[in-house]
Amino acid sequence: MTDLYDEWWTQRRGIEEALKRGGEILVTGLGLGLVAEAILRTPESNVTRVTIVEQSADVIQLVGPFLKNRYGARMEIVEGNAFSWQNPTGRNFTVGWHDIWPDPFMPGIADEMRRLADRYSPWCDWQGFWPESYADALARK
Prior knowledge:
Elements: H1 5-21, E1 23-28, H2 34-40, E2 47-54, H3 57-71, E3 75-79, E4 93-98, H4 109-120, E5 124-129, H5 130-140
Parallel strand pairs: 1-2, 1-4, 2-3, 4-5
Helix pairs in contact: 1-2, 1-5
């Protein structure tokens, strides 16, 4: 959870997809709010809302007030576990971006990404995963 250039660079695929597709965006994992901030701060963005599912109440208390104050109704933060959260409204999301891991090389991460892809596929038109984006960035160096 940083706001360094490397963090942004490895998140750019999700940010680019959100800005390209617009509409309602789902992000699992709040962190410091870098992804939501990058998506919503762009003046010409046609993103109507970013919904973030974050497990940690402490992270929500740290970052949430700033984002809610800045973006109002365009920002929704829900306390919940990405593996069990239910989409209570049945809304469709144009993009689902998953960034819940502290280490992109954790054991079992491929299985977790598959589980999230399966879980969110009914609600998300496109999904991406930070560990895959991170690996792609390393391969290009």
